[in-house]
Structures are given as structure tokens and as C-alpha cells.
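Here's what a typical entry looks like (BON domain-containing protein):
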Amino acid sequence: MNKLTAFLLGSLLLTGAVACDTARTSADAPSSVDGEVEDPQDVEETREDASSEIRQEQLDSDIRAREQRNDIAGDQTERNDSDLESEVRAKLEANIPRAKLTVDAEEGVVGIVGTVTDQEEYDTIEPLAKEILGVKEVNMDVKVVPATES
């Protein structure tokens, strides 16, 4: 019964992920990898959303569901594009809560666009993305835009 539940949940998540062609770390991240961030210096609401307890639980649940589905499917190193997008997005959102990033993946090549508030956050993007199994290459078009003081 647990495997069936995991499979059904995974199928539902896959359907939702396929419907979204890119994965965004926040609602105000670009809607596509060709998009621009509006008001990149305003990050307080983005940080609050990403660091909320409910959002952290959602991220953890998403990661667990994808891991369970991959356990059922077999090869842990093979990830479809929507899984890569979602896993990289979750990793970035959990570790860089002020970022406004959009993630797109195609055949293991992950593209990340958007803004972060400092160089340290920028420097962590690629290593975090490469921690995800199946990521072969990371292409970034991310700008550093200091946050405005609240």
C-alpha cells in the first residue's frame, strides 16, 4: 500500500511538474529563463516565504516524493528534466532564501537565471546545483543585486 501511495503521489507531482516548464524559487522570479526579475532589490518577502516552516516542509516533501519515485523507477542517476528542475529549485530555495531564480533543465544541462543579493550567494549556486544527481552542466545568467534595507 505504501508503494502505491508513493507512486500515486509521485505521478501527481510529475503531472504538476510537467505542466510547469520551469521551476522558480519564488513567485517574483522570472517566469522563464528568458525573463527578467522585477524589483530585484526587494527580497524581504522572498526570504520570508522561502524560510517559512510551511515552505520548508513543502520542499522536504517534494524531495522525498521524487526520491521515492526514483527508488521505484530504478536508476538513481537518471533524472528527467522536470525532476532536475524541481530538485535544483528546491535545493537553491532552501539554501539561498533571498534569491529570485528560475531553473530550466534539458538533458542534464541546467540553466539558472535571476538575481541574488551578494557574491557569496552567487558562488554557492553552481556547487548546490551539481549536488543533484543527473546534473551534468550548469549554465548561469545570474546577477548580483544588493537588497534594499527594510
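The radius of gyration is 15 Å.

More examples are in the samples folder.
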